[in-house]
Recover the amino acids of this structure.
């Protein structure tokens, strides 16, 4: 027994009295491993375990836990087959590392936890959960297979294999990946409800594999596997222009089906030269252009045993293993979610048959049709109609975004794509046989399987629609990677958009796994000199990297996710990448001034047409660069402090002083005026504390004056917008923040809402007041970046705030700041510890606040005015534990001014 095991054993003995039976006033829920529910391909040897505590008892904190891990689900409850027992006197219940002996690869481990609270209550043992370790490189015995000859056909190849199961199966796991995308079937049934596997990563660096429990799919006797491959991001068109084959020109399959029988014997069915291949009904498939499916080419029963036409299939070709690393899953797969029935079918002025689904979404349309063989139906996708009411696709640029279905004879058929997705609200239908009715079409939303964690609503319907639009902008663009837009010939992981929106994303949905997975690609695609590409995965040129506010994604998102989820290991994993980016800026700065290289600046800032009087809000790009240089350096200080890297703390603290001094010298006059007198300039300078403290209040006044000069309109772009209202509120101008939020005319957040938007637009005036469009070459109607206002709405309207000193909402701040004529607001967030909610209303001259704090956390409540207790005013601040609370204060002092 090693020292750690001895300590754990002794600690468990000490804690045993703590876990004696008592009334079960606490229960444990939401057990996860590495942010996932029962994961099947855990890579780390020290997986981290989390749980949530539910109780009706106020001020409850965990005082101790006991975890047991075993290899047999049936005996773990009796204490047999235990490989590790961990106990501790602590209130930590999030991301507790496994501390036992070395884990074996491709093995399932079961675990339970029980806890004691500060009131002396002990929970029952939790439900039994599990994790399964992934495969080591040596565990892969399957061979890569592809079509015979060169893979030049646009059609999707099919691969099949029959095999015999002679004994009773105890378990069967399928390990699958592909170069390209795949859909796998066993005995005619899909092995998963996920889509676009194996997902998009920096394929040349690492390629994900998926693990499926297919025990129930196997039967005694002959079984069959069938797999279809598509081009996807690997081989299809991706990036700008007509770029194909970016990662490779050959689609290939790798599959290993490992079967364990009840008698203890094992068998592996692998991809090898014994498999057969043929082409199926998918005639062409492309992310941008859509899919063509010819039902006449279907091979009925091809993925079930006893397929009659299998003799005509060709031999496969095996490939040598590549240099890419095969890795397990660290984030969620893409799945189907909401479905939308067709609201109406109508004829446009041009005579087009168009279907309106009422929501701009990302996914595809399921179509029912029956007609003569050879009939071709074409579905074209669009986000908007033009001013005259005609179908509009010019903003898709070269993306065809069309699905073609060719009918076969017989009964009604149901069609949907396999390896493409579209962004759309409207669908134009051509070639449909007979009468097209609304029951023949259903739109299906597809996005990464992230749990909804946040809710937000107010008394104002326009703000509620804005929140709806923010959420759907996230859903539509979180399709395995955080894309800029989901409809045109782009759909890339733009880093600037992602960092601007990350905090809002973490309120709306559980993005811990989503960003953990994507940040691995940020690190993998980082250049040797430290530059971060404009897009990740990187499919552009080596020169397309290193822009301020875009490359800072490498420091901003790791820190934001640490604060939101308490994931210290994420900082550890990304630390060298973070250092390398700051190191690049330092290496190219002159006298601590980073004023070289290409930068996007405050992308899509306010630019009125034919600007002759300097109203365009142009901010010096190098001023912006200097502020983000400082911000990333500050995040390095924060991160080094968390990781106890004292030398780095000192190093970056000195660097930050020099960066700010250089900023003041270059971009500020003696009385605090900036060389760029724009909202974005003052917002960034104030947000990142670039100015001497004694000049900040006057700088905030200049910002307010600018807002007033523009008639209470914002003029910020992608980099200024996320911080605009935060800065105004921080410096005592909450009323101005509300004036901006509640503004209904262009440019504003509510202008698109008033124009009928159901998602966030790329441009403030994607549709102009006269009904015409902005420049079509860059005019997406589903572009989440400006939805970053959601962070301010949650934090300041609902008042739900995190605390970096106790991350993951271990410590919570509830500080609602009403204003803007809003009479009620409610926010809810399912944190790593449980649900926190803050709901207020103004009624009968009183501001009334209802608060829910989850167990095992504490909160500071800050009211907008002195609290009333027994009719008397008391402090507006209260320290509370878990439970529900009610607060009141007079509204005469709650003006938002």
């Amino acid at each position: 027994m090693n020292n750690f095991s001895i300590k754990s054993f002794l600690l468990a003995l000490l804690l045993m009295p703590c876990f004696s039976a008592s009334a079960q006033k606490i229960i444990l829920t939401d057990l996860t491993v590495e942010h996932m529910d029962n994961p099947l391909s855990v890579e780390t040897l020290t997986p981290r375990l989390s749980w949530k505590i539910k109780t009706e008892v106020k001020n409850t904190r965990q005082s101790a836990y006991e975890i047991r891990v075993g290899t047999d689900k049936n005996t773990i409850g009796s204490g047999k087959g235990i490989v590790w027992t961990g106990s501790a006197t602590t209130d930590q219940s999030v991301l507790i590392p496994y501390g036992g002996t070395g884990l074996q690869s491709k093995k399932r481990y079961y675990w339970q936890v029980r806890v004691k609270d500060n009131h002396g209550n002990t929970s029952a043992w939790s439900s039994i959960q599990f994790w399964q370790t992934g495969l080591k490189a040596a565990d892969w015995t399957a061979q890569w297979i592809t079509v015979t000859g060169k893979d030049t056909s646009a059609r999707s190849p099919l691969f099949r294999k029959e095999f015999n199961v002679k004994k009773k199966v105890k378990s069967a796991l399928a390990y699958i990946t592909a170069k390209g995308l795949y859909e796998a079937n066993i005995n005619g049934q899909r092995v998963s409800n996920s889509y676009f596997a194996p997902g998009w990563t920096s394929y040349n660096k690492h390629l994900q594999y998926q693990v499926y429990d297919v025990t129930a799919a196997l039967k005694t006797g002959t079984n069959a596997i069938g797999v279809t491959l598509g081009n996807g991001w690997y081989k299809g068109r991706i990036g700008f222009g007509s770029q194909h084959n970016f990662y490779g020109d050959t689609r290939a399959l790798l599959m290993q089906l490992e079967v364990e029988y009840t008698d203890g014997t094992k068998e592996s069915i692998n991809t090898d030269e014994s498999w057969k291949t043929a082409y199926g009904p998918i005639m062409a498939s492309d992310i941008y252009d859509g899919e063509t499916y010819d039902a006449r080419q279907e091979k009925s029963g091809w993925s079930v045993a006893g397929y009659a036409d299998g003799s005509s299939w060709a031999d496969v070709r095996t490939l040598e293993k590549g240099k890419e690393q095969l890795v397990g899953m660290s984030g969620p797969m893409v799945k189907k979610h909401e479905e939308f029935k067709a609201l109406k079918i109508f004829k446009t002025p041009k005579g087009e048959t168009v279907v309106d689904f009422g929501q701009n979404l990302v996914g595809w349309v399921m179509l029912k049709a029956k007609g003569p063989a050879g009939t071709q139906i074409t579905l074209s996708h669009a986000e908007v109609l033009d001013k005259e009411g005609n179908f509009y696709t010019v903003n898709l640029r070269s993306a065809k975004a069309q699905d073609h279905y060719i009918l076969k004879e017989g009964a009604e058929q149901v069609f949907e794509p396999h390896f493409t997705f579209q962004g759309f609200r409207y669908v134009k239908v051509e070639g449909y046989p007979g009468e097209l009715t609304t029951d023949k079409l259903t739109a299906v939303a597809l996005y990464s399987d992230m749990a909804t964690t946040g809710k937000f609503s107010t008394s104002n319907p326009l703000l509620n629609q804005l929140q709806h639009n923010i959420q759907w902008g996230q859903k539509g663009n979180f399709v395995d990677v955080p894309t800029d837009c989901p409809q045109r010939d782009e759909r890339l992981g733009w880093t600037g958009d992602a960092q601007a929106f990350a905090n809002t994303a973490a309120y709306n949905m559980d993005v811990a796994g989503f960003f953990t997975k994507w940040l691995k690609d940020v690190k993998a695609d980082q250049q040797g000199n430290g530059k971060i590409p404009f897009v990740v995965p990187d499919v552009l040129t080596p020169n397309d990297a290193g822009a301020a506010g875009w490359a800072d994604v490498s420091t901003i998102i790791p820190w934001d996710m640490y604060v939101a989820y308490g994931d210290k290991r994420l900082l550890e994993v990304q630390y060298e990448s973070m250092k390398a980016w700051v190191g690049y800026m330092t290496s190219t700065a002159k006298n601590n001034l980073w004023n070289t290289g290409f930068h996007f600046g405050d992308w899509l800032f306010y630019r009125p047409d034919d600007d002759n009087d300097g109203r365009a809000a142009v901010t010096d790009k190098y001023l912006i660069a200097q502020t983000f240089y400082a911000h990333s350096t500050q995040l390095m200080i924060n991160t080094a402090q968390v990781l106890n890297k004292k030398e780095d703390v000192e190093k970056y603290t000195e660097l930050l002083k020099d960066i700010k001094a250089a900023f003041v010298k270059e971009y500020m006059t003696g009385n605090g005026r900036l060389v760029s007198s724009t909202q974005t300039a003052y917002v960034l300078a104030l947000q990142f504390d670039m100015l001497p403290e004694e000049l900040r209040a006057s700088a905030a006044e200049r910002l307010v004056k600018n807002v007033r000069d523009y008639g209470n309109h914002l003029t910020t772009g992608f980099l200024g917008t996320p911080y605009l209202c935060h800065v105004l509120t921080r410096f005592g101008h909450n009323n101005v923040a509300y004036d901006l939020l509640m503004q209904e005319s262009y440019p504003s957040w509510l202008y698109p809402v008033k124009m009928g938007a159901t998602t966030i637009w790329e441009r403030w005036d994607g549709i102009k007041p006269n009904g015409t469009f902005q420049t079509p070459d860059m005019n997406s109607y589903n572009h989440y970046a400006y939805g970053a206002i959601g962070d301010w709405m949650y934090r300041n309207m609902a008042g739900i705030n995190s605390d970096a000193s106790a991350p993951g909402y271990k410590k919570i701040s509830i500080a609602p700041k009403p204003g803007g004529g809003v009479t009620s607001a409610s926010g809810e967030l399912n944190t790593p510890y449980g649900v926190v909610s803050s709901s207020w209303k103004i009624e009968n001259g009183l501001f009334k606040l209802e608060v829910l704090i989850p167990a095992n956390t504490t909160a500071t409540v800050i009211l907008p005015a002195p609290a009333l207790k027994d009719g008397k005013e008391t402090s507006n601040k209260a320290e509370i534990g878990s439970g529900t609370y009610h607060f009141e204060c007079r509204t005469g002092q709650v003006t938002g001014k």
Notes: The CA atoms of residues 640 and 647 lie 9 Å apart. The longest strand covers residues 353-369.
